[in-house]
Structures are given as C-alpha cells and as structure tokens.
Design goal:
alpha+beta, 2 domains, five-stranded mixed beta sheet
C-alpha cells in the first residue's frame, strides 16, 4: 500500500532538540518509540480503533526536489507516513496530532501537493489527503477491491461510536444501560452488514447504522431481527442519545421490561441468510 506523507520544517533561526521531540512523543497514548542507525520512529496505533501511522526522523532529507522550496525554511528530516487507504475519521485524528506537533515545535508543513512549505491548516491538509486517496483508488482498483466502500458519514459514525463507547458507557452506568459492541458480518453473497448483540432483560443503547440486532433469549434462541423493522415497531418508546450521533437510540429504563417482553413474543420477518464475521478493517470510505 502506498502512503501519504507530511514533511515538517522550521524557520532557519530555530533548531530542533531531538531529546525534547522524543520526550514529547513518549507522552502520547498509543505511541511506541523505535530507533536504529536508519531512523527514529514514533509508531502510533489508535488505542481503540487499531489504525496506525508513523512519525519518523531520518539522517538525510526525504523531500523530493527540495531546491524548489523557499530558503527561509529549514528541513529537519522529520516526517509523517500515513497509509493512503485510511478512514477519514482516523485521518482527521492524525491531523490533530500534527497540530500538537506543530504547536509544540513551531513546525511548518509540506505535502506532495503543496507548492511550498505552509503553516499548519487542518482543512487544507485533509483536502489534499482526500485528493490523493481518490486518485489512488482510481489508479489501483485491484487494491480497492479488498475493501467494502461505504459513505464517509456512515464509517465515521461507526468509528466514533467505537472510539467514544467507553466514555458514553460511564454516562449510562447509573441507568444500568449497556453499550454493546458492533458485529461486522457478511452473507453468502459477500454482502456486508452491521449488527449488534442484545441479551434478553438487558437495557441497551443501539449504535448508529445498524442492519440487524442479534437478540439472545434466555431459552438459548437467537433471533436475527431487522433493525429497521425493530425501530418501526418501537420508535415511539426509544429515545435519542443526547448530544451524540443521530439515530443512536436507547431503551428508556421505564420501557425496558415491556420492550424486552414484546421483542421475545413478536413474530419478526424471518432472516434466512447465513452470516460469517468480518473485521472492521474491511470497510473504507470515499
């Protein structure tokens, strides 16, 4: 897989303190530091999503055609390498890491699409990344075939739920309400779906963008229920999660017993598909 690069520069009057850089990166959650004679590498893995990128320092310049750039900036051989096929939600998170780096060390940035070194600008960096990503997908369709492409809004919502699930769970602890995990599944025709589990008698939050609910009854039966059909039946009793993503629903405690009982007794439209699990990393946005 190809990568998207950001190169960091300083004004010539300022020097880079390597010890200070290493100390800074060691404080970031999800960061590991490696070094050898070839480079110093700051390997970042998102603590909850698992996507990764690397900031690295090299002995020599990695910037192509560096002579074309303004002489007022000093190339410090410090770079970011990010897989081009990364979800936009993660990319925006990395761009915020870039901001922290630039703010801390007074860095300027350069990408392959910039005409010259520029001050940090999150929107500009993201737009350039999007351009590079789309061009890469068009140029290498065979590699793109390894992914299931869904809308940016949908994948970003799924990733936000996963990223913020633990924090949201603490909000609902006092209400004895659970936040379930996603299950990513596919049928016999390789069609992908998004599901979650719900155990009978539990009060839960329903994550956004669900296709199916796997309702685990106490008698051992697992009902596969269309989430759209479920919401249609109980929409008046379900509540939106305040301050969170649209279509994230929660069962109010006062209705939990009734909804559980009706869900168990109701005759739902039969789902005849046979499912197998997929990984989150099968999904990509455009």
């Amino acid at each position: 897989m190809s990568h998207f690069y950001i190169h960091f520069f300083k004004e010539k009057s300022r020097q880079l303190d390597m010890v200070e850089v290493i100390d800074f990166f060691e404080t970031i959650e999800g960061m590991e530091v490696e070094m050898d004679e070839k480079s110093v590498r700051f390997l970042y893995t998102h603590p909850r999503l698992g996507y990764s990128c690397v900031f690295f320092i090299t002995p020599k310049s990695q910037v192509p055609n560096i002579q074309r750039l303004s002489p007022q900036y000093l190339e410090v051989n410090f770079h970011l390498r990010l897989p081009i096929l990364s979800p936009n939600y993660f990319v925006k998170h990395v761009i915020q890491l870039i901001k922290k780096v630039c703010d801390r060390f007074n860095f300027f940035v350069l990408s392959e699409m910039f005409e010259d070194v520029l001050s940090y600008n999150a929107e500009r960096i993201f737009k350039v990344f999007e351009m590079v990503k789309r061009a890469y997908i068009e140029k290498y369709p065979n590699e793109a075939n390894n992914y299931v492409f869904i809308k940016d809004e949908k994948l970003s919502g799924i990733l936000r739920y996963i990223d913020e699930k633990d924090a949201l769970q603490s909000y609902y602890d006092d209400l004895d309400t659970l936040l379930p995990k996603y299950y990513f599944i596919k049928d016999e025709q390789e069609q992908s779906y998004i599901a979650t589990e719900w155990k009978e008698h539990d009060t839960i939050v329903f994550p956004p963008f669900l296709d199916y609910v796997l309702f685990h009854q106490t008698d051992g039966v697992i009902k596969v229920i269309s989430y759209g059909e479920f919401v249609e039946k109980f929409n008046k009793q379900l509540l939106d999660v305040p301050g969170f993503l649209q279509d994230t629903k929660v069962i109010p405690k006062k209705h939990s017993k009734s909804i559980n009982k009706k869900t168990k007794k109701m005759k739902w439209t039969p789902i005849t598909k046979s499912f197998t699990k997929q990984g989150l990393n099968i999904f990509m946005d455009l």
